[in-house]
Amino acid sequence: MAADVYKLQNVTIHTARQQLEAAGVLNPWSGLDQIREMAAEINSGIASISKLSLEQRRELIDRLIEKGAQVKNPFIYDSDLRTEAAKAGVKRKVLNFRGVSEKELRLMDALAAQVHWKDLGGYARLCDKVIKGPRPKNRKELTAVCAALRSMIKRQEARSAEVPDEGHG
After folding, report:
1. Eight-class DSSP state of 88
2. Which end of the chain is more exposed for a tag (fewer CB within 10 A), N or C?
3. 3-class SS letters over the chain
4. What is the pTM of this model?
């Protein structure tokens, strides 16, 4: 799993870099070097994106979003962290204090992927509105977010069914 989130984070970082270079926030000739400098700030002076942990890469993406990049920071699941630790030869036991399993979080995220969001922050705003936080801490909150997502999907499907086919008539 960690390889998948690593690749997603890589794509996100480079997409953000391209956006920020196009917007003039980063220098087109040294944008990658500027991002490596940001990585060094996060990782004890090591100016390498590939040397960042998944959690450090999440922080880097958040910084790029703060600079104006219109990207989504991929979710990191417990299995991603365990896989990353195993590859590094470190034993890491991820304790789930949330009371919500990874499988349930992935289901919620899959539902969110079915919604046609008006902008990138829509999912985060929905969670904040429904549960006053970015991720559910317990099953009650998970159920509330999933119910809201299912309702949105149902409304969007109903709206798309109402739209007449413009080629016939």
Report:
1. T
2. C
3. CHHHHHHHHHHHHHHHHHHHHHCCCCCCCCHHHHHHHHHHHHCCCCCCCCCCCHHHHHHHHHHHHHCCCCCCCCCCCHHHHHHHHHHCCCCCCCCCCCCCCHHHHHHHHHHHHHCCCCCCCHHHHHHHHHHCCCCCCCHHHHHHHHHHHHHHHHHHHHHHHHCCCCCCC
4. 0.66
Instruction: Name the amino acid, one letter, at 78.
Output: D
Q: Which two tokens stand for residue 62?
A: 């958040």
10 Å Cβ neighbour count for 121?
13
CB 148 within 8 Å of CB 156: no
Nearest-angstrom CA–CA distance, 155 and 159: 6
Q: For the chain, what is the total number of helices (H) and then of strands (E)?
A: 7, 0
The yes-or-no verdict on residue 95 having pLDDT over 60 is no
pLDDT band for position 92 (cuts 50, 70, 90): low
Give the C-alpha separation, 79 to 163, whole Å: 42
CA distances from 75 to 5, 25, 109, 162, 169 (A): 8, 25, 9, 34, 45
